[in-house]
Each structure stands twice: as C-alpha cells, then as structure tokens.
Amino acid sequence: MECVVGLNVIGSKEKVRNCIDACGTPLLTSSVTSTVDITMMIPLLILTLVSLLCSSLAFDLKGRVVWNEICPGIGDLGQAKVVLDNGNLYGSVTRNGQFVIPEVPSGTYILSVVAHDHAFERLRIDVLDTDTLPEVRPYVPGTPLSPPSPVTLPYPITLIPRARYDYYTPQESFNLVGMFQNPMMLLMLGTGVLMLAMPYIMKNMDPEVLQEFKERQAKITDIQSSIQNGDLKTGLSAMMGGEEKTSPAPAPKPQASAARNRGKNKRR
Amino acid sequence: MLTIVRFLWASFAIWTAYALHPSEAGVVDWHKALLGVPLTRPDFHRTTGAHGATRSVVLTATSNNVIGAVHPENGTVAWRYLFEDRDPVVGYKAYNDRLATLSGPGGATFRILDVNSGHLLHELHLHSADSGRLFEPVNLGVAIAFDDSDKSKDTFVLTNGHTLRRINGKSGDIVWGWTSPDQTSLVVYSKVVTTSDAIYLIGLAKSFASYTVHVSAISPDNGELLSDADVPSSIINGPQGLIVVSHEGTRGKSVRLAWLEQARIHSVALTPQLKDKPTIKKGSAYLQVHDIGLQEKGLFVATKEDGSGRVIRFSEDGALKVFWEFADSSPKYTESTYAGGLDKDGWPYIARVYWSHVFRQASAHVLAPHLAEGKGLVTGFTFPFETQKHGIIANVAVDAANPEEFRVLSRLVLTTTTGAVQLWQQDQHQWTREESLADIRVAEMVELPEPQLVASQVGIEETESFGARLRRQLADAQDFPQYAINFAKRFATGSYASASSSIAPASNDTSPLSRDTFGFRKIIVAATSHGKVFGIDSANGEIIWSRVFGLGWAAEVGGRIFPLKIFTTRTVSDGDTPQVVIVGQRKADNSLVDTVAFHIDALTGEDVSGTSIGQDILQGQDVIAGALVEAYLFQDGPTKYVVLLDEYLQVHLFPDTPENADSFHKVAPSIHLPLRTGTAGSHRLGGHKVSPEKEFTGRHIAYPIWTASLPPNEDVRSIVTRPHEPVASLGKVLGNRTTLYKYLNPGVVVVLTSTSTPSGPATSCGVYVIDGTKGTILYHANLPAAGGVCDVKAAFTENWLVYHYYDDGSANADQAKSYRMVSLEFYEGSGVDDKTSSSDLSAYSNDTTRISVYEQSYVFPRGISTITTTSTKFGITVKDILVAGNNHQVQSFPRRFLDPRRPNRKPTAEEQEEWLIQYDPLLPDDPKRVLSHRYQVARIRKIITSPALLESTSLVFGYGVDLFFTRVAPSKTFDVLNENFNKAQLVLTVAGLALAIVITKPMVRRKRLRERWYAS
C-alpha cells in the first residue's frame, strides 16, 4: 500500500492527498489541512489502518512530450492526450509538453498518445505495489505482454513525436519525358525501331552473314516453340544438333531462304 | 503500344492504395466545425495585445461539453477545447489572457487555457471523480476567482462546495488548500470573491424551510480562516439570488453581498472580520435579481413585479442605489433579457432585449451608465429577429463601443431555443451559427432530381404553319456555327465531368436544386434534438432550408421533440419530388409522451400533409398517444409507408390511408419482427408475428412467437440489422474454381448484449447472430467488458460482420491489451459448392442453420466511436469499413486486409489468384486512408453512407459535434475515365497515326509495284 508517506519519492504531500481523496473518509480528510504534521506524527498504526481502508494505490504518472522538428510545439500537436489502455485514465498534454495521468492504480498498462497528426511510440508501464518508481518499457503493438521487454526506459516518461502523418498522395501528372524514361517504354521503342529498320539492315547485309543470321533465328524460333510445347528434349537436341546440321550443307540453303524472303516480301 | 502501357499502369494502380490528392482536399469533401448549443450566456472577452491592440472573442460552454471561442467578426471558430464525456464542464472564467475551467464531478479537474489560442497551459487534478460531490445544478459548489490584486496570475478555486485552493499561475501548482472543517454540516459554498485583505467564500446553509447565508473570510497568503459568520437571512430559491457587488474605490476594493428576501433587497458589507449587519433597501418590491456579469463594476438588475427592470449600483458611499429604470414593459412584450458588457476602456454597458408581439420584431436598449455626465445614456433599436426560424431568444451577450459622445454602437450575441447563435451589429444581422447541428439525431441522404431541360416548343409542331416552323428552325439554326465550333473544341480538348471535381453550385446560381452528372450531389435531411430540421446541400454543406418542429397540443405546456427515425418515403425515381418522414418522440413538460410524424418535401422542407401554414412552424401528426417501440419502412410496389409499433405492439401506419392499410393487410401474415423490449438494464429480445386480421381495436397487433434464450442477467443493448442494399453476387468463386455461397438469410440480425451482476458494472459482453424469424443462435462470442462497460461496435452487410471491442487481456495472462477488430463471413452449407439458396429459403427450413463461418481477429490501432460499411448502387464494388477514430479522424479500412479467409501461411497460387494475403494480426494504420485528412472531425457519433450514380463511388456523411462529408471509391473510380486521362494526347496520337498512314501509303504502293517488276 502506497500511503506510506515518508518513503515516497515524489511529492509525498500530493500523494497523501490523493490517497485521502480516493478513500474519502472523514477521519482522513480532517488531516488534509496539515499534511506536514501527519508525515511527522501519525503513528504507524494509523498508517496501516489507512492502508486497509484505501486498498488501491493512486500514483500520478508524469512525463513529457519532447518537441522536435517533427512537432515543434503545442500549436502543431493540437489538443492531445496521453492515455493508458482504452482511455479510462488519461492526461492532457500542456503547452510545455508535460502531462500527468492522475491516480493510476498498480498494474500493467499500455500507454499511447491520442493525437490527430502525429505518430508516437507505445510504451508499457508497470505501476508497482511497492514504493519504487513505475517501470517504463518499449512496446510493440500486437505482441504479448509477457515476457516483458528487457529494455527499460527512464521515468519520468519521455515521448518523442516519431512521424507526421502524410494524408495525401501526389498527383500523377502526365509527363512526356517521364513516359519515355520508363524502361518498358524504351524497350518497346527499341523493338519498334528495330522492326522498322530490319528490312533495310537485311538488304545491306552481306549474303553470308545474312544467311547465318537467318539460320540462327530459325533455330531460336525452333527452340522457343519446342519449349513452349513443353518438349524440352527436342529443344535441347535442336540446340545441340543444330550446329552439326548447318555445317555440312551450306549450299542449298540460300535459295530456300531467298524464296522465303521473297514470300515475305510478297506478303507485304 | 500506348494502350499497353496504359493498361499496365492501370492494373498497377488498382492495387495501390486509394488516397486523396492534395488538390482534391476540400473539393470532394467538406467539414463544418461546430461547438454545440451554448448552455449559458456567451461572453465577449477582450484581450489587449503587446501594442495596445485589442481583440475580442465570444466564449461559450456548450451542451456538447466543449468550450470554444468564436471570432465576432465572421462567426468562425477561433479555437475549441473538447472535454471528455465523463469530465463535464462545471465552470469557467476568463481573465486577461487566460481561461480557467473546472470539470468533472464537484470540479475534479482544473485547467488553464490560453484565451487567444485555446492551448492548454496547466492541468491539475484536484480530487478523484468518485469523491466529487454531485450538485444540482452542476455549477453549484464550484467557483473560480482570479487574484487581481497583483500580477501573480494566481487563481482561487472552490471545488466540491467546501474546498478552496490557491493555484500558482506560473507553475500550475497548489500554493495552499483550505477545507471547511465541518463538511458534514449543510454549508455549501458557491461563490468566491477576492480582495487584497481576504478571500470571501459565500455559501448557503440549509436551515429550517429556507437557506441562511454563510460567509467565511480566508487569508489570501496562507489560507488560514480569518473569520466565519452566519448572516441572518432566509433565502428560498437557492444561490442564484446571491449577488456580490464590488467597487474599486480610493480605499481599495469594497465588497457588498446582496440578496432578495421577502421582495426586498438585503445587503451586507464584507470585511475580513465579518462584523457588518445586514441592511434592507427600502422602496419598491422586487421579484427577481439578475446577475448580468457586471458585479465587479458594482451593477446588477432587479425586476419589479410589474416586469420593469431597475439597474442597481453599488455607489461610492457603500450603499445600493437605483441608477436607472427600464420602464415600458407590458404584456405586448416578452419578458426582457438583461446582459452586461464592457467596452475597450472597461466602461460597463447594460443591454435589455425583448420581443414585441405587436411589431413582430426584437428590440434592444443599451444603457451606458458613464455617459451623459454620469446620468446614463440609453440607445434603442429594433432588429428583425426571425422567430419562426430560430425560436425564442434564450440568452444575450453585449459588446459596445462609444466612438463619440452620445453615440453608442453595440453588438449583440443571441442564443436561441433552437440552438442558433447570432450576432447583430445594431440592427444589422452579421452571422448565424446553427449550433444545433452538433446534436443531429437522425439524418438521411436524399437523391436530387435531374436538371430540367427547357423544352418549350414540344407539342406545338402539329399546329404551327410551314412558315412559322421554318422561321423557328432558322432561329434555332443560327446558333449552329457556335455549336459546331464548341463541339470541335470539346472534341479536341474537351473536359469531361470528373469524379474528383467539385460539384458545388456557383455562389450566384439560382437554378433549382438538381443532381450532378454522377449523382454526388444529394440533400442531407438532418433532424436535431433542438426542434429543428435542416436540408443540407451535400456539395458544400450549405443549409438550403430549415424548419422548426411544432409542438402540437404541447405548445401550451411546452415540451421537446426528439427525432428517432427518418425514412425516405418517396424518391426521385418514383417520379416526383422526394419526401421524407421523420418519426419523433414528443416529451411534453407535463410528462406526457407522444409519437409524432412529420412529413416533409426533402427539396424545400415544405409540409406535405398541408397542416402547416406557409413557412411557419412545421406541424406534425400525432401517430401514437404514447411511446414508440419500433418503426419500419414498408415498400409495396411504388408505395412506401411507415409502420410503427406502440408499447402494446399495436400496428400504426403513416400515412394512414386506406390503400396503405390494404397493402399492409395483405403482407401482414408474412411479417417477422425481432424486437427489443423491456426496461433499462433488462432488455429482452423476442420474435414477433403480426396478426393477419385486425383486432377489436381496429389495429393489427404483433404477438410474440419466440424469446431469445439468453441468461436472465444478460441485457440486450442493441440490434444491428443489415442495410437494404442490392447484393451483386450470391457466391464467391475461389481460386480452384469452386464456389462458396453467401449466407444471405434476410431475417438475420446481430444482437449486442452485456452481462452484469445486479446493479453492478458489466462483467462480459456478447455478440450474437440470430435468425430473426425463429430465434436460432447462429454465432455467439463472449467478449471482455473493459472497465465494466460494454462498448462493442458492429457493422453488418451481406454475409459479412465486423465488430470492434477492447480486449483488456484479462482472459489470458499472455495476451496483449489492445483494440480488436473481428471479421466474420457466413457461407451456406458445410463448405464449398454447397448451395442452400439461403436468401429464398423458407423460415421453417432446417437448412437456414446449416452454415459455415470464417473468422479472423485483428489488432486494431485505436478506439472508435462508430463503424459502418460503404454502400454502392449495385453492390459490385468492394465494401470498405469506415470508422470514426478517437483521434478525431474518419478512416477507411480495406476489405482486403479484413478478409477472414486470409491464410495463416504463405498464400498458395490459388489463394494469390483471389488476392488473399498472408494473415498478419496487426491491421496497418495507413494515414493515406484517413478520409478526413487534416480536418479535426470532432466526436463523430454516426457515419451514414449512400450510393452515388456511379457504381464505384459511395457518399459518406459523418455527424457528431462536427459535420463531415466526402466520397470514397473503394476500388478506385473504375467506371469513369482516369483523372490523368489526357485527351489532347490521344487526339494527337490518332492524328499522328493517320498522318503516318497518309505518308507511308504511297511509299508502300510504290514499293510493291517495284517488287512486282523486279521479282525473280
């Protein structure tokens, strides 16, 4: 029980008042006016009596929001509050960033900041039954509470604005240069140019080179079609065997290719 | 090529998040920041800046538990401070640049705000809420006084009726505290007055049959009691009649306490020793004394029995003297309202405002006591206050200036019984704030008719002669070149109606209300609990019309109307102007409760039933002489009517025409109604059927057929029904080409319950899905009641239920504390391809309970105040979940993340085909999906959604303290051209291609010819 006034670390007077107010018994309220006297004089017996009457600890959780370049002041933050769990216990953030969550009973809480435009980290707060200061730990939403994180943060609590919410997506505007910088676009342009230029290149090519090129192309188409048909073996053998076939009989090919070429031209 | 790229872009874009572009903010949406209806008299507060410039604000505390400041120049909100619901404002006072507030029971929390910016400077918790004493009225037993003797900015705060504290103005700490030694006695203090010698606490002690004034003087330095005295007195009507006037004289501040006793003003001087004896002011008999806010200037008003008011001044010599009499009161006028104000130099002014029944105008008299060589100068004027639009003047605040001698300019702030706040500068109306919109009870979006095209010569073709026709057609044709040019221009560069452009009409537009191309413009009919109904343009939030509810017979005794339901009984598609019916409960001041229906034309606010005269008060029709249990809208072909059930479960129809009665008689045997009945704390759920024949009372009656078998201590909190919306697909085709058929039993309802120990807090909460026709429980979940309160929010559409609650981790020690959102889907039968046609199934079939449920729970980032789903015209578009968060934002959560079928492992190819993503307990909190973006949309109580003409888009209207409207497209606007669609580019590309063909065609021809010639 926390009404052991003399041992209290922060604001013993305040704590007595809290305790007394929480219990609200006339016996205790008469002593409100002279708290100093109580701390000196009231015997331990009465304190134990107090602890029996006032069974829950009331601890004022203190801390502050540190202004930084993300959130330079209260004007930026707006009306914000620091809440424990689902907001039954809360304290408002004042202009100098400070907040007090009054009368927190012992227990484990998740502390979060309810602000309109800013993101804050969440903390796990353990308010203890004993006289020690509450334990502050980082907390990741969605993780179990036990075991607690081994990292502890200092008390009073310091909260740092982590990010400012960005609600908007920039307008995608049409940009001609941007469009042509797109790799897909470049690829397509390249293919287009090649397609248009192909007949001229072919025309200016050395017949032998041309033939070689044609063969290679035919082979590639062969392999492609065989892969497409799922016939990997034929594709592979075509890759292997293709070379052997081409070397012995180079002579009759030109005609056929010429014929094919002619046919192509005709179709055009 | 381009089209391929476009297609690729488009396909990427569909799966990127929908978000607002900066240019769309404020164009597709609007936000109206409100404060709420002022509870007390607003105050003009003037502060002096660094360079001697003064600025003033109008301060007010409202019924929405907000303290706010309004700029008097234009009526916009300067700032506002929102108090929590369990922390009600009980008192506030402004002094120089700071505003002190007390809130919570007995004044548990003390805050100091900056009066110009509303920033919180200090917050101090004075006592726990449990130990706060509750008084009636709430502002009894609390008071604030500033230390004006020096520059310490210290504040003296009286709380709980017996504790006084001095609070340091710089650090916000308590300097000293004093508690009345005998709180058990019946002394309750209610006023604090500061002087440099002593702080006076003035209270009343209950004695036999009346109250006695009790005064305590306390040292301002250390809080010690200087003296304590009972003043011989007997006061009957509470502490409102206590007036403390002070006067800053040459010998310091002198204070006098005055009260009314047996029609005479008694008064006593307050000194630290409290030795003075009360004196009685001789002369006329008074009925009432009014505190007009000028007590520190030594002025107050007392009204005589004949209604005339006298200004009484605490003069230099320490006596109370009548300074002025506002005569001229007669039954032709209403009772006058008095208010005091100060000008720039601190001179006091007193205004008297009344309404004249004869001239149908309001009149104001402003008295400047210091003018005319100290004799007082009165300036009078009348102003055209519209009583049929704004009700009766409730409170007045005055601010005045004295630009030259014998000339007083004043501005008045009026608050009215319908919740309007108006500023009048002399007789000129400056602005009106309709603050009752912060208390909307029901609202509905009503479709507007199409714009009417002028077709003047239709039907005269047959009769007109050839010459006349030729002339007419030539006349019509002379515009043709213009049209052709316009057409070409439009074709080349033309802009089309865009889904993200503004639909607000131009400010000088006088054309009748009509919808826009995509049906984004609707009229929002909103009924408030302050007796007013509004028609709001959804394009820009402007009020198009407003009507005041009439009280019917209760007008003589007074009463209030609380709107409960709103129904659109005729829409534009029915061929005429749309109509709505508002069903409300009228609570007369003599405690009689009736159910009233108002039938209004949604476009103009005119009374459809024709009982009201012109633009006067809107008269309703008493439907039930008693309370309403439930009301439904019934549709039978084109006719729609409202069915109401009274406490005896008798059926009433509105409008009660023979056709509607016949129609209802036909459908009556097939009606099943799940109803929540019973008293507070023990509501039960029962299924009812309607008797096929009328009973001897001449009415159909609903009789119970089943009762939900819930434990006796389980209270039914609310019933969530599915909205009436089209369902586009009856099933869901999975990746492996099997189908899950949606469970669409029309009778299914969601029931939210709370279980509590007798008269204790709730121990657990329940969510049930119940077949409303026979009471079968299809799904049940037990949820923890965090803090002893059940605060489960649920949204239900098609076969999808989403509910939100706070898990305090009490069920499992390992479990995290967090807000949860549970998503559920109901499918027919035991699995895939098991079809039971649940939507058409007989209620008595066993197949109605053969369902399979998919369920997944997610960690939700924050608490919410309401939840709903989007709704579209045909229901094809994916439905998003819309929530109003506790951080004053309206945010959408996509269905994809809430899908209960998200796999707990890496999704397979088939699942990927369905766009399922791996389960992650944490729902992403994406600021890009905050619909309200930078707007602080305070305390949204309810969000309503309505379809637009575009299938992709849903209209969203949220109301609470603020109003917020926007439109959302959960699957992007797939049915209109993209915003970025560049028509010029398309035209250029097509033109370019055409040009290329023209150029290459002869080339190709030549080439072919050559090939033929030279072919081998």
From TrEMBL, chain A:
Residues 80-187 form the ER membrane protein complex subunit 7 beta-sandwich domain. Its main location: membrane. It comes from the Eukaryota. The chain crosses the membrane at residues 38-59, 184-202. It is found in: Membrane. InterPro entries: Beta_sandwich_EMC7 (IPR019008), Carb-bd-like_fold (IPR013784), EMC7 (IPR039163). It is a single-pass membrane protein. Keywords: Carbohydrate metabolism, Membrane, Polysaccharide degradation, Signal, Transmembrane, Transmembrane helix. Belongs to the EMC7 family. This is ER membrane protein complex subunit 7 beta-sandwich domain-containing protein.
Automatic annotation (TrEMBL), chain B:
Keywords: Endoplasmic reticulum, Glycoprotein, Membrane, Signal, Transmembrane, Transmembrane helix. This is ER membrane protein complex subunit 1. PANTHER family: ER MEMBRANE PROTEIN COMPLEX SUBUNIT 1 (PTHR21573:SF0). Residues 20-435 form the EMC1 first beta-propeller domain. Its main location: endoplasmic reticulum. Residues 1-19 form the signal peptide. Pfam families: Beta-prop_EMC1_N, EMC1_C. InterPro entries: Beta-prop_EMC1_1st, EMC1, EMC1_C, Quinoprotein_ADH-like_sf, WD40/YVTN_repeat-like_dom_sf. It is a single-pass type I membrane protein. Belongs to the EMC1 family. It comes from the Eukaryota. It is found in: Endoplasmic reticulum membrane. Component of the ER membrane protein complex (EMC). Residues 797-1013 form the ER membrane protein complex subunit 1 C-terminal domain.
